[in-house]
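Re: that backbone. Tokens:
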């Protein structure tokens, strides 16, 4: 349910309308999506091609800059990691579901376990309400502190390791991702809003 809620609610809360051409749209059955909620969100808003197909590095850079205000160098480095797994037939474009690739999971693993299962169980792609509820249970207040985010992360990763001994995310990457979503989901008062994080994941 939460995975289907539009990020446009964030803008509505801030009394800002979606820019023209960037209304949230539910993906079609033929559209491709990744295990990453953030990437899926900007595709659902049209900052990346809504069909999730044949996306170039330039499109990723522009989409992340306009949709999430991410630095071009960060996006460039991330996309390069996934290019060996492209199924588009070209080495300079990606389909969003190429990020499902098991080898690339070593990079993505730090992000999606908060609301997705891992590929060990066959589906690292779909929103998993049961998993997300265990993470969201830590968020009791209107805002999320670094300490609360760290506890939610640690408990979720401990649970993942308990059922999959091959689950070995990078601490550096996972802490960095926590910082990314805490910063990206800040309100005008610089506090990370719980409702924004719930919408994102």
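Recovered sequence:
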């Amino acid at each position: 349910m939460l995975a289907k809620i539009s990020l446009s609610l964030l803008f509505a809360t801030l009394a800002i309308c979606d820019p023209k051409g960037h209304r949230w749209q539910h993906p079609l059955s033929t559209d491709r999506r990744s295990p990453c909620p953030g990437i899926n969100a900007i595709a659902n808003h049209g900052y990346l091609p809504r069909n999730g197909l044949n996306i170039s590095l330039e499109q990723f850079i522009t989409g992340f800059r306009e949709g999430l205000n991410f630095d071009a160098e960060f996006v460039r480095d991330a996309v390069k990691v996934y290019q060996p797994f492209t199924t588009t037939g070209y080495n300079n474009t990606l389909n969003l579901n190429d990020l499902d690739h098991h080898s690339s999971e070593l990079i993505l693993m730090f992000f999606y376990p908060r609301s997705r299962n891992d590929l060990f169980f066959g589906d690292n792609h779909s929103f998993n309400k049961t998993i997300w509820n265990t993470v969201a249970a830590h968020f009791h207040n209107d805002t999320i502190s670094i300490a609360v985010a760290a506890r939610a992360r640690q408990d979720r990763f401990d649970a993942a390791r308990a059922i999959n001994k091959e689950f070995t995310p990078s601490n550096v990457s996972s802490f960095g991702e926590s910082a990314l979503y805490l910063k990206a989901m800040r309100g005008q008062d610089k506090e990370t809003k719980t409702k924004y994080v719930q919408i994102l994941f």
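The radius of gyration is 16 Å. The longest helix spans residues 146-163.
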